[in-house]
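Researcher: Here's a chain I'd like modeled. Treat it as a single chain, no partners, no ligands.
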Amino acid sequence: MKRTRSHIIEFIQKQKTAFLASVDEDGFPNVKAMFTPRKIEGNCFYFSTNTSSMRAQQFMKNPKASIYFYQRGRFRYEGIMLIGTIEVMQDDTTKREIWQTGDTMYYRQGVTDADYCVLKFTAEKGRHYCDLKTESFRMEDLT
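Model: Modeled as a single isolated chain. Structure tokens:
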């Protein structure tokens, strides 16, 4: 069941929802549904969110994170979990790279809105589930 980097990226790009997990101040996991990554570059996945959000604040204190994607079919279920760290990016260059026209609905002041930031998730390892089989992998080992 050996999966390639391209399989994982293609699978993720087809999904509409990502589940993003952070760690709160008491060490408990917190999970939130988000839109899929705006940009994928190597092992990095970029999401947009509010700087003032609970999630962004948690990542500023503890960068450990996990993202999960799944596709549920009638007879087949496939899921990919990635584990890594998140950096809260507030620089103009990164913000402009993933900005989309409709984002003004969430960030009224546009791409320079102080409440707009980018979560840069860097995957280190993961698990893939499909056809009743699970496989762990390290991102550096994928071909």
